[in-house]
Amino acid sequence: MKPVTWKLLIILAVLAWAVFQAWPRPGRPFLNMKLGLDLKGGSHLVMRVLTDDAVKAECDLAATRIATKLRKEGFTRVRASVGDRVGEVIVTGMPADRLAEAKARLEDDWSTWSISIDGDRIVLQMPQSEIATIRDRAVRQALNTIRNRIDEFGVAEPNIQRLGGKEGDRILVQLPGVEDPARVKKILQTQARLELRLAYYAPDGSGPFRGLTKEDVVAQLGGEVLPYEEIDKKTGEKRIREWMAVEKSAIITGSDLQDARPNRGQWGDVVVSFELRVSAADRFARFTRENIGHVMPIILDGKIRSAPVIRAEISTNGQIEGSFTYEEAEDLALVLRAGALPARVVTIEERTVGPSLGWDSIQAGIRAAALGFVLVLVFMVIYYKGAGVNAVVALVMNLLLVAAAMASLGATLTLPGIGGFILTVGMAVDANVLIFERIREELRAGRTVRGALDQGFGKALSAIIDANITTLIAALFLFQYGTGPVRGFAVTLSIGILASMFTAIFVSRTIFDLVIGDRPVQRLSI
User: Global pTM?
Assistant: First the structure.
């Protein structure tokens, strides 16, 4: 089989693959490519994870463990709380003559922390390396939680990524086709930290510690006072019904949930029903059996939503009440299923693109690409004659290969990506121009047509590779350090460079060989 036949078979195989990949599919009518936010419409959010919250949560846990340890070892009036500095825990309530003893006991379990005596208190400072680890873990957990929530919400083909590398605390969220961005934003920002704790007081003021004030509960028992929030059914406004003293530790948390769904309560009101995992169900059944008659507040993000009294043993199922609308109950159930955020998340940048604006951008991009293509086609045919037709065939195949490669890689087409398409049109014929000018030089030097083709392609090859490799390196840097639209432009440009090298060098030469064949040719239309 002749070499030109093998080349033709390779080209036909590549063409068949490209047509298959680029053929429009349901939901992807534009060359089987995912459309970016600026083309399809939707929401663009840049969110910041408040990583100090995660550090404070770790310090809260450490403070509880510190107070428990020292109380067991005879320091009955000790209190531990989070300090003003990030990663700081303050321990107070110890006799002055036993400060050194308490410090020595703490050094056994918190050896990596900096521990010092400051007047009548002990100050513990978390090491910076541990703070950095907690911050990084909080952002990664928030990224996974946000992704889970968006998957639960049903947004197709979202773009969710961390910005700024390992040190970054920002998350980019792009949601194409979202019709209610305010609702999605609320779902993403809700921390959804669910806790079931035991109350020291019932709503009517009765309870096992009735003789103590709420402040005494906090000081003597290490409890916490939280607002019991309710919604006024007439105005729909939230108001604090009262403040309740509750235990610091939780019996059940959101991580113990197996499922959560909106439902109807006993009186027809909307509630969120939840089901516990097997391991948590056994623990919850034992706890409720031992605390019948006590109040067990259901706490969401530090606020009491309901305060039911334990009437009987409860194992796997429970309900969260709170004057919800059905949509609010759906959203709360969604975030509970997806998991709690390790820290609060705030939106620092928000843009919304309408689908009509996106379609206008697609049409404008198509018109620009078509105009550029026609102008290049006319120029090449007029200036290079028959060889110009060769270049046009290679250019058409180049554009098809770019679309097919982007579809197969799952790349997203953005408005700058369309700009990359248009730039590819110009760059694709650049290599042909270099080759054709070399061929003209060889023909003027008196070489035969076949010799001019061999020399033209051979001598232009190094210049083509050098020019395209430098452009490709620049595109890779844009992809590595750019975000959103810049990355879309870099992807299109990179694929276009590789495709143009294949079409200009391999495809164009094969077309020349097919036209010339084995017969002697005296002149070349170039």
Answer: 0.63
Q: How far is CA 492 from CA 224, 302, 338, 399, in A?
A: 56, 47, 34, 10
- Note the pLDDT of residue 219: 61
Helix residue spans in 299-353 (DSSP H): 326-338
Domain assignment present for residue 166? The answer is no
Provide the 3-class DSSP secondary structure of residue 305: strand
Assess contact for 31 and 407: CB atoms under 8 A: yes
Nearest-angstrom CA–CA distance, 280 and 290: 16
How many Cβ atoms are within 10 Å of 238's Cβ, its own excluded? 13
Average pLDDT, the chain: 81
Structure confidence at residue 442 as a pLDDT band (50, 70, 90): confident
Q: Range of 315's domain?
A: 190-349
The CA-based angle 201-204-206, given to 5 degrees, is 45
- Computed over its alpha carbons, how large is the radius of gyration of the chain? 34
Share of residues in the chain with pLDDT > 90 (%): 8
- Count structural domains, the chain: 3
Specify which of 91-100, 317-326, 470-479, 517-526 reaches the highest per-range mean pLDDT.
91-100
Which CATH number belongs to the domain containing residue 125 in this structure? 3.30.70
Structure-token pair, residue 399: 């554009």
C-beta atoms surrounding 118 within 10 Å: 9
Task: For residues 209-220, give the mean pLDDT.
Answer: 61
Question: What is residue 118's three-state secondary structure?
Answer: strand
Q: Which two tokens stand for residue 168?
A: 């970054």
Rounded Cα gap, residues 215 and 219, in angstroms: 6
- CATH number for the domain harbouring residue 278: 3.30.1360.200
